[in-house]
Design brief:
Length: 522
């Protein structure tokens, strides 16, 4: 049997009768959509204010995944993605977010293949609906094209019909109704103002995340309703694309512990076996990824395990693996910073200031140069990656000899009311420091060349920090155990490397490495 933690190390080859255990990704790949190209599967996820945007994951078996790239090298939509200020946000509050775009950026994307191109569509809440294309999911990707210049739209999905006509369905903030547009054949612009095709606030409240498909002469829209934390999955169908649509619930909590199994994409193996990839909200670990079998009865999908007396299914805890050869893969996490480019696992909080970080200035190290900021939520060049559950240990080695007066640097679990352990430079000395929601606690003065910092995140979504001054032989705990923010501007909490200064910009820290170990359930 494949263990829940199969992404920690290369997985064992699948054998006849092998099963997988959900979640397939205990990681915040929120709002997933998935397609198959040949024998490979590709998944895209929402990335909000993190840059590069729209991660693309690749799998050969739908169970094991690695990060293949990103659609957006930067977030070019508005100046606020460069965090210009003036800033109203502090480490002690979640809003107002003036001078930034927290919770903006890329909302639920969709991915499709058409006429030799790969298409990804997404909305940003303040700027409109966009698309980009590539010959291969690994890129390079075209610059984004604005398809609809209107704010407060969400969750677009394109569809090309058998006659070559192109369509786009999306929702509005709120969420709902579902709105259908004709598009130009190249998918770069809509041809009309859009028509509401589904609106039922009583039975389908908060209807969002639509995904378009066609099967056996029916047009299908897979769409979640009921909200992020406790919603269910509906499927709507019609004989014509404009409707009228009938609907039913196809996946709900049932007798399981998953309160909100919904929002994702349907895909088939080369043999025609059906699968549904979706998320379930878990608080600080974000919206993690599940895989459900799909079977069809009377041209309706039933997702997951059957529920007695119900047309809907419920999530599976484990199941026989999808048909096809095994394809071991792992998510990238640890980094020795020995490459000329950052690993695919890294995403900056908002766009980086490229003049103030380097992998070349000191080979084998990530150099971060402090910009001015009062607190970490307003600091540029905070480098993050997605937190892996059910528990994680994050350790990093930092050389702080070139820090300047007023500078802070270290390791954070980044999100709303962030906490961090690190070094502050005050009064001409480096001090060990712990911070939670903007309240700093100074520890001992440190004089060594380097320090190792550690954060252990437990399955109950709390973090304990520690440090080592003897090269990692022993670690001393510092401070209390802190609860992680349950939900941070639509994303889970993230391990992060950072530096900023309250003094004159220009101080330097060099990060030697980051090691991340996924731990078992506590």
């Amino acid at each position: 049997m494949l263990a829940t933690l199969s992404w920690i190390v290369p997985a064992a080859p699948l054998v006849a009768g092998a099963t997988y255990t959900n979640p397939i990704l205990f990681a915040d790949y929120s709002d997933p959509d998935v397609i198959r190209i040949g024998r490979d599967y590709y998944l895209v996820a929402s990335s909000f204010h993190f840059s590069p945007g729209i991660p693309i994951l690749r799998s050969g078996d739908l169970v094991h995944w690695s990060i293949a790239g990103h659609v957006l090298p930067r977030l070019p939509f508005a100046p606020e993605y460069d965090m210009p200020g003036p800033h109203t946000l502090t480490d002690a509050i979640s809003k107002p977010i003036g001078g930034t775009r927290y919770a903006g950026g890329v909302w639920a994307p969709s991915i499709r293949q058409h006429a030799g191109l790969i298409y990804v569509y997404w909305a940003t809440p303040d700027e409109g609906i966009f698309m980009a294309t590539a010959r291969s999911p690994e890129g390079p990707w075209s610059a984004p094209v604005k398809v609809i210049d209107q704010p407060a739209l969400e969750d677009p999905c394109p569809f090309w019909d058998d006659d070559g006509s192109a369509w786009l369905v999306h929702s509005r903030h709120g969420a709902g109704p579902l709105i259908l547009h004709r598009m130009s054949p190249d998918g770069r612009r809509v041809l009309d103002e859009g028509t509401v095709i589904v609106e039922d606030k009583k039975n389908l409240p908060i209807l969002e995340g639509p995904k378009f498909y066609k099967r056996n002469g029916y047009y299908y829209i897979f769409a979640p309703f009921g909200g992020v934390e406790k919603g269910a999955q509906a499927v709507l169908r019609a004989r014509t694309i404009t409707g009228p649509y009938e609907w039913r619930v196809v996946l709900r909590q049932g007798n399981t512990a998953l309160e909100g199994p919904h929002q994702g994409g349907w895909v088939e193996t080369p043999s025609g076996e059906g699968w549904f990839v979706h998320f379930n909200s878990t608080g600080a670990f974000g919206r993690i990824t599940y895989l459900e079998p799909v079977r069809w009865i009377d041209d309706w999908p039933v997702i997951g395990d059957p529920i007695a007396g119900d047309v809907a299914g419920q999530p599976v805890a484990s199941h026989a693996v999808p048909d096809g050869p095994p394809a071991p893969a792992t998510l990238q996490t640890s980094d020795e910073f020995g490459s000329r480019t950052l690993g695919q696992q890294w995403e900056w909080n908002h766009n980086p200031d490229d003049a103030r970080w380097s992998l070349a200035a000191r080979p084998g190290h990530l150099r971060l140069i402090a910009n001015h900021a009062n607190q970490i939520v307003n600091a540029r060049n905070t480098l993050t990656q997605i937190l892996i559950g059910p528990a994680s240990r994050i350790t990093t080695r930092i050389d702080a000899r070139k820090m300047s007066e007023g500078q802070r640097a270290g390791l954070s679990l980044f999100g709303v009311k962030p906490s961090w352990i690190g070094i502050t430079r005050e009064g001409g000395r480096n001090w060990l420091t712990l911070s939670s929601a903007g309240e700093e606690t100074r520890g001992a003065a440190i004089a060594g060349k380097q320090i190792e910092l550690r954060a252990i995140v437990s399955s109950d979504q709390k973090v304990r920090y520690s440090y080592s001054l003897d090269g990692g032989q022993t670690f001393a705990p510092m401070g209390d155990v802190f609860p992680l923010a349950r939900f941070s501007w639509w994303k889970g909490s993230r391990p992060a490397l950072f530096t900023f200064t309250r003094g004159t910009p220009g101080g330097i820290v060099d990060v030697d490495w980051v090691h991340i170990d996924t731990l078992p359930q506590d």
